[in-house]
């Protein structure tokens, strides 16, 4: 983590101060990559089981404020929490380069908050593109340097605060937080690899300080391998420019999932077929967490209690299950084009348009969430971001409005990303309890998505990366 020269922590650097903080926009370094493309669909998402594919996208303008409410809920229920966040954390934050560059930003948004996230009808501002950046600007070279900036500074401080909120004294050591952002998954992923992962991974020292109930929660999450309740898909400033990000936010309604040998896309792998059948990919899962569905309901989204039962009872699902085997093979099928606004690019369209990039990015992020059984997805290019919720029962991505990171006064960055970590943890904790209950049930009572079984992915034929 980059630090400025020694500085004295002013009295006002505290939790409220941190929750008003937005980072300054990042700018291109002189040697910033000029690449503007994004990867095309690959084996894992091209072969994703139909019951796990993204089917619709809904933009929810109120999503970010509702996500952020959890921090207020924590402090209301446990007034001692603000005192459990150590001053040493704020001292480190105050001397970090990312804060020093944004101190004027914090001072500018003191007092009552106004404005907010851009709604679907408002225009965002183009991120700064400075070819001759000054020493007072945060510069990046490419997508990887954006990831590192988040993991080592912006996201790191939010994870430290969230650790203290969730676990009290056991999570209050900034040098040993229970939540950590990393660029590597806990287990090797040869396909559908996200860029950044939230890890729930206490050290032996912090585990020994935890309340028994918290230890049980962590053990349960690890036993069910819900290691990464939040994943991030990063794009560089050039690949995720304003037009591309606005194209993502313009989706509404049905989403046409791109399958192998559809629309001109093919996996090109020997694993296209297995045992003479079309190979299917995915990961078994369970019901959506009630706590997460309550966020959506608070935003005005109507979710029926029958959503899960209806998806279970569909003829397509039952036919699909009856033909599936323990090895994960199944019948070959092609998904017909949807009638909504989000359409697969036609075969003859060869140019990498902004709309096509947006389709690829949404499919890529959703597939990564499936692989990790994650619920929350961050789509970000540094200065602009969306936060998405994967709803399993309806196969819908509920997407926030486009968040302009440096100027969001309604849900500033420090507050929002701390809240996102807490929401992800609450989701994983509830769903791990659900899996415990499912294990006690007869197999014929298991929901369809929990009965899914897939073979291990081919690791020897594909280098580790984003396939």
Automatic annotation (TrEMBL):
Residues 110-141, 313-349 are annotated as: Disordered. It comes from the Eukaryota. This is Uncharacterized protein. Residues 127-141, 314-328, 336-349 have a biased composition (Polar residues).
